[in-house]
Every structure is written in structure tokens, then in C-alpha cells.
């Protein structure tokens, strides 16, 4: 039973997901609200179960997955994010025609996949988790069957995702062929036997390329703006938060465990990807007119900063990555919750950035929350979004990569422009047609909580969150 205790959260979500699928089959659209709230309860239960599950059992199931603090930390921020993505759908989809029970079930199964991803200590479990997460995500992207943009987003994501999976599988087969094992420790031992062979290096490059696609890192980011714009807004919020964290943490574990002896080989790739993501994410967002496309480039930009922490390697770098992703998930969900409230008089969603003009006069509370998230995403002090950026830069400097930190700081300055532009439109432009009132008290409460976390009050979390991330990062070393 000890082995099964280590995967208690996954068992809760898997079993609950299968039961809810049966409930959905029998209740149809009538049961969408019930299924959604039961799914949220399951995700909260799985988060609580992390306390009871052993976080020090190490590799279980013959080294396929690890029950360690690193995985537990990832799950503790992904499960609540998935629950919020389910809550967001209430009132956004048309209740009688679009909001069916499958939405919550798909998010549950996607979350199980992400949970396996952050725990994987073998190339086999890595691929199974990744595909389980991705297959549910492809369906979610094209969830609005009657909407051309949503169907196009799902198709683009599926075709490019299949290509990335092929690249990843090719890398896995090369690593297995040249090491004779799929286990991370075995691969690390093979890399540690002197200079790695050309085959091993090719395997490393292909695996990192496959993972870069999932984290939407430049140059494998091409799908992100189109899919984020076309997918339903609650789905976009989900894509930008939990799966992004799962991909970054998986890449961190692969680099620092499986490829640890070949740090010099993968560090060059990670540094290039980090700087390319920071600058492309900053520059490409300049001319955007759609708020969801802008937030897509913002997510590419932010993953670039997290990768600076990974490039630093070491426990301090890994800890900085974990801290960064924890704060990033709150900022992103907060920003998307605000986007959900952009509605015209008929209650239809509005996505044009220009429609925010004069929001500070018509809806001052919403404008304030939006401004807090934008300033925080830009990393402007005294908001809490500044601290994780400082942590990754400090980790890079401590590892001797001062030029990388300086380049990252320059990227922050470039990227600040488009965040500040949104604030300028809300506070200085002539007011446009006012948004309709949205009566969603739970979403309003979530916006308030997220705004408080990323406000200067968030600095109170530095002590506890810092010590947790240090201990979680220590599990990899």
C-alpha cells in the first residue's frame, strides 16, 4: 500500500474523472453545473491529499515516477489552477447550448497527465504524462464546435503537437538506443562516462526540442498566439497556467536529473531559448490588438525568465524556477479573470485592447485589478512580480552568468512597454462603450485574492514560499 499512497492525488483524480464521465453520460447538459463543482471538489481533495501522500518516498513503481517534494510542489500549484479554470467557465459558455459536462472531465484528465509529467523519472512515464495532458488539451482548444476560430485553434494545436511528439519520441528512442535504459538515473550515468557520443547529444537536443514546444519556448512557440486567441477564454487561461508550469518543471527535472553530467551541453540551448523567448515575447507583443494574443506573448516572455533560473543549474536556480512559476500562475490567472469580464452590452465577450479605453472611469475596481496584474507581469516594484525576476537574475549572477542576467534585465525593460500601454489605455484614453456588469461573485473574489497576492502584501510570502521552494529544489540534488 505504501507505493499507492505515493500516488494518492492521481488516484483521486483518475477514479473521480471516470465516475464523472459516467455521470456526464447520464445527465447530459443538465448535469454540467453538478459535474463542474464535483470536479472542483476532486481537485481540492487531491491538493489536500498531497499533505497525506509521502513526499520523500523517492522513485516508486520501479523508478517510473518519483514521490518527492519537487513533484508535490508542482501539483500544489497546478491543481488549484485547474480548479479555477473550471470555475471560470461558469457564465462564460452559454449555459443551455455550450457548457456541457465534458469540459470539467477533460480538465481533470489533463491534470492527471500534468501530475505524471512533474513526477516522471523515466522517459516512458514522461511521454505517457505528456500525451495524456496534450490529448485532453487538443479537445479543449476546439471545444466551441460552432466557432470557426476555436475549431482552427484545435486543429493547429493538434497538428503541431503531433509534430512535437514525434520529435520528442525520436529523441527518446536515440537516448534509449545509446544508453540502454529509459530511467533518468541510468541516462545520467551514461552521460557521466566521459565525453557524450554524438548520438547521445542528438537525443538530448531532440528531447529538449519536444519539451520546448510544450512550454511554448522560442523557436517552438509558433502555435501559441493563434491557439490562445482561438480557444475559449477559460481554456486559454488554463493553457497559460497549469500546463505551462508542468512543462517547465518537467524540463527542469530532465535537465537537472537525466542530463546533469552534460550541463555544459544543454545550458547553451537553454540560454539561447531563454533570451529568444524574452525578446521575441517582448517585441512581438507590440503591435497586438487582441488581449489574448498579447497575453500569449506575455506567457512566452515569462517562460524565458524562468529558463534563466534553469540555465543557472544548481539548487538556487531550480528554487528560483519553482518560485517564479508559483507567482506566474497567480498573475496569469488574475489577468485572464479580468479578461473574462470584458463583455459588451449583449453580454458577448470582447477581446479588443482598444475596448479597455477609459475603463478606470466606468469600472474603477476592474481597472485597478487589471493594472496590478499588468505591473506585476512587467516585474515593476513594489509589486510582487518583481521578486521572482530578481531571484532568477540573482541565481544567474551567482553561477557566473552576469551577461545573461544583464540581457534578461534589458528584456524586462523592453517588455514593460506593452504592459504599460494597456494601463495608459485604461487610465488616459477617452472612454469607449462601457462593459456590461458581470454577476459572478466567486470570480470577483478570485480576482481580489490574486490581486492581493501579487500586490506588495505578497512580500509576506517570501519567507515561507522561499523555504518550501528551496526544499523542493533540493529533492533533485
Automatic annotation (TrEMBL):
It catalyses: a quinone + NADH + 5 H(+)(in) = a quinol + NAD(+) + 4 H(+)(out). Belongs to the complex I subunit 2 family. This is NADH-quinone oxidoreductase subunit N. Residues 120-414 form the NADH:quinone oxidoreductase/Mrp antiporter transmembrane domain. The chain crosses the membrane at residues 6-27, 34-53, 73-93, 105-130, 157-178, 190-213, 269-287, 294-315, 321-343, 364-387, 399-420, 441-462. The keyword Transmembrane applies. It is found in: Cell membrane; Endomembrane system; Membrane. Its EC number is 7.1.1.-. NDH-1 is composed of 14 different subunits. Subunits NuoA, H, J, K, L, M, N constitute the membrane sector of the complex. NDH-1 shuttles electrons from NADH, via FMN and iron-sulfur (Fe-S) centers, to quinones in the respiratory chain. The immediate electron acceptor for the enzyme in this species is believed to be ubiquinone. Couples the redox reaction to proton translocation (for every two electrons transferred, four hydrogen ions are translocated across the cytoplasmic membrane), and thus conserves the redox energy in a proton gradient. It is a multi-pass membrane protein. It comes from Sphingomonas limnosediminicola. Its main location: membrane. Keywords: Cell membrane, Membrane, NAD, Quinone, Translocase, Transmembrane, Transmembrane helix, Transport, Ubiquinone.
